[in-house]
Amino acid sequence: MTFAANLRGRSVTAPLLCALWIVVAAGLLVLKPSAFAASTITTVLQFSTLLALVALGQSLVVLCGGGGIDLSVGGAASLSVVLVMLGLKNGMPDWLLPPTCLAAGAALGWFNGLLVTRLGILPLIVTLGTFYVYSGLAVALTNGAAQSGVPAWLVPWGRGAIGAVPLPFVTMALPAFLIAGIILAFTSWGRWIYALGHNERAARLVGIDVDRVRRLAYTISGLCAGTAALVSLAWLGSGRPNIGQNLELTSLTAAMLGGIGIFGGRGGVGGVLAAVLLLVTLQTGLLQLNVNTIWQVGIVGALLISVLLADRFSAPQG
Amino acid sequence: MRSLIQRMFGGREATLLAACLLAVLVFAAASPSFATPDNVFTVLRNSTELLLVGLGTTVLLAMGGIDVSVGMVLGLAAIGVGRALQADWPPLVAGLVGPLVGTLLGLVTAAVVVVGRVPAIVGTLGLLGVYRAAIFLVLGGSWLSGLPSGLTDLLAARPLGIPVAMAVIAAAYLVIWLALRRMPFGLHLLSIGSAEERARLSGVAVTRTRMIAFVLNGALCGLAAAFYVATYRNVATTIGGTLALEAIAAVVLGGTSVTGGRCSLLGTVLGVLLLRIVQNGLLLVGVPSLLQPVVTGGLLLAVLGVEAVNGRLPAARLGWPLARVQP
Amino acid sequence: MKLFTADSDAPKSGRAVYVAQATDEGLGFSIIDEMVKRVGPDAKIGIVSGEATASNLNAWIGFMQQRVKEKYPKLMLLAPQFAGGTAERAAQISSDLMAANPDLKGIIGVASTTCPGVAQAIETAGKIGKVIGTGYCSPNTARAYLKSGAFGYTVLWDPSELGYLTVWAGKRLIDGKSFEASNTVEGLSHPVTYDKATGVLLLGDPAVFTAENVDKFKF
Fold this sequence. Notes:
The complex is a heterotrimer.
Chain A: H1 3-8, H2 13-31, H3 38-63, H4 73-89, H5 97-119, H6 123-142, H7 155-159, E1 161-162, E2 165-166, H8 167-186, H9 188-198, H10 200-205, H11 210-236, H12 247-257, H13 269-288, H14 294-314
Antiparallel strand pairs in A: 1-2
Helix pairs in contact in A: 2-13, 3-8, 3-11, 3-12, 3-13, 4-5, 4-6, 4-11, 5-6, 5-11, 8-9, 12-13
Chain B: H1 2-8, H2 12-30, H3 37-62, H4 70-86, H5 91-115, H6 120-139, H7 150-156, H8 164-181, H9 184-194, H10 196-201, H11 206-232, H12 243-253, H13 265-284, H14 292-309
Helix pairs in contact in B: 2-13, 3-8, 3-11, 3-12, 3-13, 4-5, 4-6, 4-11, 5-6, 5-7, 5-11, 7-11, 8-9, 9-11, 12-13, 12-14, 13-14
Chain C: E1 5-6, E2 18-20, H1 24-39, E3 44-49, H2 55-71, E4 76-77, E5 81-82, H3 87-100, E6 104-109, H4 115-124, E7 132-135, H5 139-148, E8 154-156, H6 159-174, E9 182-183, E10 192-195, E11 200-202, E12 207-209
Helix pairs in contact in C: 1-2, 3-4, 4-5
């Protein structure tokens, strides 16, 4: 398999996601034309920002192979929110909030990476453990109460928009995806990630510092969760200790739907962004049509299975 | 083959047993209410569903599989049992609806994961969503409430001096133990977990073995559903939401490897008990229940971390899910 | 466009009116008052809630604690425990609570999803009559437990009346009519109060369901 093909991921992904998105959008246009207001687009993108950031980190971890998976992304986002808000309460100057939030996320991700690479415990187990610890701590430290006291200067950024596009989406989600895309496609780090996802033994033999690359992937995943945490603070104006709830499985769904191969070494981040937009559009559409959002969960599940089955039966053996 | 058998009996059971005993001693010293017959019964009672689902998860992990939809399978089977009770079916028949629904759903999972060759974690993640919507659809947004107590009475009856519930759980354990340890199925399962391609080349019916494992897992979830309905006589839309991750945690604590090739049923029992004893004990000594997830995660990381440091775990970095074979 | 809220409020959203089933205060106070009627003013009571992050549940617990502090200083209300949304965890925590406090006289299941768990724990522990279970749950959910004696009573509003009132309020808003301090609504058994300062339309006191009256309700 060539490098370019790895980058593209599954052959059916891109056209399928576009087609599905058009179906969803057209369906909504027919059933409820009023849903096509600028405000709806803003809402979709606002929700997408959180999921997109977390799904990006998840994708990088999975790309690195070796059973890479990060079940703790939601917990890391929640705990980052709680840690900085508790920091503010204890006298941390408020201009330190954004960097601290990102650093908290990165540190939590780095800890995952450390356990995975130094102790050789499987990522599924490590991040299952830290999922419990991070999300549990976030709720226990606050007794579940939302934390107020987000500095007022942060909120205009979180709620602002250029036209219909929310500022956090423009300033955080898009650049993050662009940078990740460029790194994956054009730098040696990107080639290393694909190499070790594709064949870790070979990657080791050619001298790639496999553990270092992998640790970095987990750290970036945590950083993405921390960024999502910051966006949630600026957007909601308060710190919710359960902001990351369910993000672990939703982000994994987005990554898989976006064409990242679960065994690593295959797929690109463009598909992931498309998948996130599709997931959130579907959810918003159902909300607009007054349909219970539980159907979104069902539809997405069915979608995930059918995409993978279609991929299996359209591709040659292997 | 010799090394395979050696790997089947690791030292984890002894470690876990020691951990359980230590926990019991500490909590008994700290709280006079801990070592009472009532409390022991409470802990055992609260372990039932997790134990049955955990046995299924053990079988799956042994061959390098996984199922994150077990909670939803339990939910759908529980709805089946509940509806049967509402329709005044005899309790025994209503109870059997659980394993039946579970078996059918196990077939669905097997069709997607084994026949469709979708990686187990992604396939069951998709099914998780589909089943959750199905639960909502079947329940119609409301709950099954105040179900008749026929099944409850049946499981609590003591025809031969021991409660039917206990006999059923023991029988389920025995069946899985026989399948894993006394039948070719068990060896096939573990050899698939160790190296699928090698197992295939040495004549193991890989597809059939994997299908049986998923169906067994479904049946066990269905059995757990019968216990669930007998206990709560209520099925809410939130049923089973946290079960899959807790079951994986308990089974891994018990010494079963997520990469496959190594499993311990006794370890699963001890893993479930350790989780429940610690959760119970901490609440008894006054630790808020909000910290329970932290303790669950901490236990998992601590046990595996200590073992990794001791070097007892094989460096399994390359493994999971092992089936990746270079073309 | 008219925006109004029902069931859960969004106070600063600019909504025209919030149709409230019962005030959080009414719900919190009445569950404690009813409990005291049954176990006396100097008992030990446990609380099993759902998600720790659910603000309505936390508000009810806050008013329970306030009521105890103000009116029943001898009542010992244990710190709330949180079971998430599932009956299994609620049962586990309730039985642990009873083991930890052999002198426990009552358990309050705050989230409706915790009620079956609380009731089951009391039944299996053989503590029917010794521990009074209760919670905010509908007659259909609680019927079996009220009859078995595991639950002494439950507190809730009537959702069909709430739905009726919500529709009535919506119609009224669209017609451009305002609300009186006390409104007679066709189809409801009692007048409905409206608080102009907060913009809350209140269905009334929460209903208390017991083994005696539960069969009159079908929801």
